[in-house]
Each structure stands twice: as structure tokens, then as C-alpha cells.
């Protein structure tokens, strides 16, 4: 059985999902791949400890605190490659960004390959089922383009601003000037 609840945030409504023990999903309303890793109907359970902890984590985050990812029991659903990429995302510090290419290099090194496709990494990043907590919003294109956020580039910008990222070297997709 899967359980869910909804939580209001400065970015709008968020849906949280749990397997009863761990957080398995966190999606912004209207997000691409919304609830894609929750294959069954969910029972609304706002009192479930994993969901209470996730709501408290989000409240702390949006108050400007820097709660640790390890504060939450996480169990994102995905294959080994995606989980390895998500593990790298969890290492990106608050206020910092990394490129898809940087992650591809790290994945290549971890798997003993000469190179890795940044597009493959982008697919894994884009299918991250626990947005915000697993900080996929901290990934940018090699040229500084703010591309590839399933929740929408506008929300990615708000999250990066919230974390104090210097946006002056980052670009909106399709535009030739910095933000």
C-alpha cells in the first residue's frame, strides 16, 4: 500500500508519497512525471511518520534552514543507474550547482567507463521522484543553461534563488543573456 499527503509550499502544492516507512515521492503540482513511481492508488495519511517528517523538513527548508537529506528516510524507486545519479545529486551542497557533464564524468569513473552520456544522466535527473530533497534543481547545462527541470524552469530559478545561488552566470534556455 502507498500513502500520500499534500503540503502547501512557496512553490505551490506538493504531493508527498510513502511506502509506509520511507518517503518515495515528492512532486510539485503539474510536474512532469508527476507520481510516475507510484503505480497504485494511494491512501491519504497525513499522520504517517515519514510524511510528517517530510512536511517538517520542507517547512525548515523554506524557512531558510539547511536540513540534511539524511534527516529523512528515503526510498526512491528506480534502477541502479538512476539511483547512482540520485546519490550524486544528494552530495551537491546548498547554494552550489553542478553540470550534467560533471555528473556524467563521475558516473563514468564509478562504472569504469571512459565516458558517459550527459543525456543519459539528464534522463535520470529528470526522473528523480523526490524533488527538492534530492536536489535535481542544482543541476545545470554545461554552458550554464537552466534546462531540464521537471517542475518547470521558473520553479528551478526560485529554488536556486532561495538557496543563494549566484544566478549571474546562468542562462534561461533559448535566451542569450544571463538571468
UniProtKB/TrEMBL annotation:
InterPro entries: MethylDNA_cys_MeTrfase_AS (IPR001497), MethylDNA_cys_MeTrfase_DNA-bd (IPR014048), MethylDNA_cys_MeTrfase_DNAb (IPR036217), MethylG_MeTrfase_N (IPR008332), MGMT (IPR023546), MGMT_N_sf (IPR036631), WH-like_DNA-bd_sf (IPR036388)
Domain Methylated-DNA-[protein]-cysteine S-methyltransferase DNA binding: 80-165
SUPFAM superfamilies registered for this protein in UniProt: Methylated DNA-protein cysteine methyltransferase domain, Methylated DNA-protein cysteine methyltransferase, C-terminal domain
Family annotation (Pfam families): DNA_binding_1, Methyltransf_1N
Localization, UniProt: Cytoplasm
Enzyme Commission (EC) number: 2.1.1.63
Residues in Methylguanine DNA methyltransferase ribonuclease-like domain copies: 5-75
Alphabetic keyword roster: Cytoplasm, DNA damage, DNA repair, Methyltransferase, Transferase
Reaction catalysed by this enzyme: a 4-O-methyl-thymidine in DNA + L-cysteinyl-[protein] = a thymidine in DNA + S-methyl-L-cysteinyl-[protein]; a 6-O-methyl-2'-deoxyguanosine in DNA + L-cysteinyl-[protein] = S-methyl-L-cysteinyl-[protein] + a 2'-deoxyguanosine in DNA
List of catalytic residues: 136
Gene3D superfamilies noted in UniProt: Methylated DNA-protein cysteine methyltransferase domain (3.30.160.70), Winged helix-like DNA-binding domain superfamily/Winged helix DNA-binding domain (1.10.10.10)
Enzyme class: transferase
Principal location class: cytoplasm
Family statement drawn from the similarity comment of this UniProt entry: Belongs to the MGMT family.
Family matches, as NCBIfam families: ogt
Function, in words: Involved in the cellular defense against the biological effects of O6-methylguanine (O6-MeG) and O4-methylthymine (O4-MeT) in DNA. Repairs the methylated nucleobase in DNA by stoichiometrically transferring the methyl group to a cysteine residue in the enzyme. This is a suicide reaction: the enzyme is irreversibly inactivated.
General remark: This enzyme catalyzes only one turnover and therefore is not strictly catalytic. According to one definition, an enzyme is a biocatalyst that acts repeatedly and over many reaction cycles.
Protein name: Methylated-DNA--protein-cysteine methyltransferase
